[in-house]
Amino acid sequence: MMILIANPGSSTLKLSVHGESRDPSPHTIELHDDPAVLDRSLRDWLDSREGHRADGFGIRIVHGGDRFVDPVLATQTVMDDLRKMSDLAPLHMEPALKTLEAIRRTAPGLPVVLSFDTAFHRTLPERARRYAVPPEWVEKEGVRKFGFHGLSYDYIAWRLQSLVPPAGPRRTVALHLGNGASGAALLNGQSIETTMGMTPLDGLVMGTRPGNLDPGVLLALLRKGLSPEKLESDLNHRSGLLGISGVSSDYRDVERSAETGNRRAALAVELASYRAAQNVGSLSVSLGGLDCLVFTGGIGEHSASFRRLVCDRLDFLGVRLDSDRNDGGSDEKIDRRISPDDSPVTVWVLEAREDWTIARDVRRVLSGKNLPFSGGKGEGKAFPASPIE
């Protein structure tokens, strides 16, 4: 079965193909505001990849709300429902809907399956998903924690089963660190706590988003006359690493600037790593301890110094790093253990494979095997081998 994968960001769309093997060279196109330009770029890619022979298209959707807890086929009704919840994650939902519409125009006969980042966190217990707010906020407005980066955490839960025999670690904290960043506590492969909340603004310091923030700050700014539109723009586009450093939202640029003596950039690095370590401690409390720590995402996979800054603060939890393993060059394989053999907590670097989860979801839906969500280890029982490797 050949499956096309679409992973839309805020301004670009990453495309890949999964069949007998994984596409070694994912393609990126611009999410142009002009539908004709986007359609032409997508059609050119489909033609170059012989997309007309594909069996299905899978697309990442960041927010599924309470409505979508399993992958589904894209229909007009589904798209209408997604538009109603787009204000929960405007930075991500609008580009995803734009991508979905372009796919349906350029490949009208191809079934499209939607995979939701929030679905993996449906196992959150009530104490984790409930906010201490008036009950009418919960009952009438749907205010609750959803969590994100679930497609990445879903793969991590599956991958650890083979890396840590016989059935994977019991208590895992995973850090997905990129332009968007979050952490999750996995108990026997299931999500029981996560740092992002109702929207992707909460939690860790990100490229342009602030993470943890006193809500009173927002009220004070509104009272001073800052418009909701300006507030939303500042929170989504001018905060995080960019806001602290004044240099860039790209951690690589910020790190290089810090190394040259830029104090604001150095503060950005320190604050981002401090918050990450702080949240590992908090997530470990929800697990009752820590057996395994995982780094993934662009920063998690490629910045040995950031991993070191985080782990150095977690010695009290039994986290140790093997310097040679952690500092391995670019030729070092991605999926690898970076803690000493005798460390009480195993520390891993795993490649972010949201595409794996999407491809699995497409196969399940199209084969009629879209089993009820079980999370973690139940996934491995239904599909014991990766469908794309």
UniProtKB/TrEMBL annotation:
Q: What is this protein called?
A: Acetate kinase
First-listed, main subcellular location of the protein, grouped into a coarse class:
cytoplasm
**SUPFAM superfamilies, per the entry:** Actin-like ATPase domain (SSF53067)
Q: State where Mg(2+) binds.
A: E354
Gene symbol of the encoding locus: ackA
Q: Which Pfam families match?
A: Acetate_kinase
The biological pathway it contributes to is:
Metabolic intermediate biosynthesis; acetyl-CoA biosynthesis; acetyl-CoA from acetate: step 1/2
Which residues does the entry assign to the active site, renumbered to this chain? D117 (proton donor/acceptor)
Q: NCBIfam families, per this entry?
A: ackA
Binding of substrate: at which residues?
Answer: R60
Give the record's GO biological process terms: acetate metabolic process; acetyl-CoA biosynthetic process
The entry's ATP-binding residues are H176, L177, G178, N179, G180, D250, Y251, R252, G298, I299, G300, E301, H302
